[in-house]
Amino acid sequence: MATFCLGRRSATLTSSICRSLNLLRPRDLKQHPRCLQTSVTNDQPKAPSFAFAFDIDGVLIRSSEALPRAHRTLSYLQTHRIPFILLTNGGGKSEQERVQQLSRLLDVPLDTSMFVQSHTPFAELANDHGKENLKDKCILVVGGDGDKCRRVAEGYGFNNVVTPSDIITAYPDLWPFVLLEYHRPFARPLAQKGHSNQESSGHPTLKVDAIMVFNDPRDWALDTQLVLDLLLSIGGHLGTLSTKNGDPNLPNRGYQQDGQPELYFSNPDLFWAASYHLPRLGQGGFQAALEGVFNAVTGGPKNGVQLHKKLFGKPTQGTFQFAENRLRQHRTVPQEGEAGELRSVYMVGDNPESDIRGANDYRSPTGSKWHSILVRSGVYRGGKPAYEPKVIVQDVWDAVRYGLRKEGVDTDETS
Ligand SMILES: [Mg+2]
């Protein structure tokens, strides 16, 4: 395989080659972080045929503190121009805000092109060229702190975003147990978005085209009621009830057969590790609760009814494919065109259900092979994991050493 710039002597070589090619040197890293995501071979810049993907919580940080060898690992990869991407089921903030925090915490330069959080793939749904162009459609954004996720969605290019806070403030009768004092401070008038507030009947006239759960809902009861209402409505018109619901002559007994909005979830994790000593329910918990209510209302699978939904986040195929596309873009050297083949990606995670399962199950459309590496620095506490990785190691540094050894790279200096 092509020689890699590893070790002290090769670092000198790297600087020399970078000068001759008018590329940035390792010491320029802080000013130009993306440049160093490319390897240097004998005569031209070329990305290696492998890359790393790292989960964040439990791998690089824990309880808002950097894990011991996280800085060393990322610095090493950047210095040696080995591409990597950060792939997390976290979210609720813009990619820029989260990357700035991480960069400070880990003391390494990072940028948003190497960062995928749970809802990042939603951005493609606002893409003019995407299959499902929802750019100007009415999107109900669910979950997150205050209206941060609304602003994230608007940053992705969605031009018509409403939140449960907007709706409940306009129609307080929609959920009688709501705590309006929580929602009012960040609610926007629906009329500003071109929705008339009320018909003469007093019912809402809002039409929702898609429901996107961006992050863990803060008001499960309101959000459950509101999403259920829309799933049972006529074409997403709030306050209506489809007459097709329960029709045994229709597919899915008529449920979600009347133009109701698509339902998207960004993170299937049932639990996550918070500061409390036991795992806390995550967005997957809300999904299970909503599905339980939907099944209770419709009869559920026993009645031949399924909740139709679209899932993103690890371990889904869509999120891994999105991450792989990002890695490919990231490996491309602007002046040199496409990088060579990406043969291997090493997924390093602490959660067997999402990181390991996702990497094991992922089928790359271009044939890249993903290898799963489980670390002991996060939620995994030992024993036989529910989904078996290729290897179990202590931490992220050991994970990278494993990957480099598999690629035949001399790792003496990484011991
Ligand atoms: Mg994790």
From TrEMBL:
PANTHER family on file: CDP-DIACYLGLYCEROL--GLYCEROL-3-PHOSPHATE 3-PHOSPHATIDYLTRANSFERASE-RELATED, SUPERFAMILY HYDROLASE, PUTATIVE (AFU_ORTHOLOGUE AFUA_2G02580)-RELATED
Source organism: Alectoria fallacina
InterPro entries: CDP-alcohol_PTase-I, HAD-like_sf, HAD-SF_hydro_IIA, HAD-SF_hydro_IIA_CECR5, HAD_sf
UniProt GO cellular component terms: mitochondrion
Pfam families assigned: Hydrolase_6, Hydrolase_like
Gene Ontology biological-process annotations: glycerophospholipid biosynthetic process
Gene3D superfamilies, A to Z: HAD superfamily/HAD-like
Name of protein: Cat eye syndrome critical region protein 5
Entry superkingdom: Eukaryota
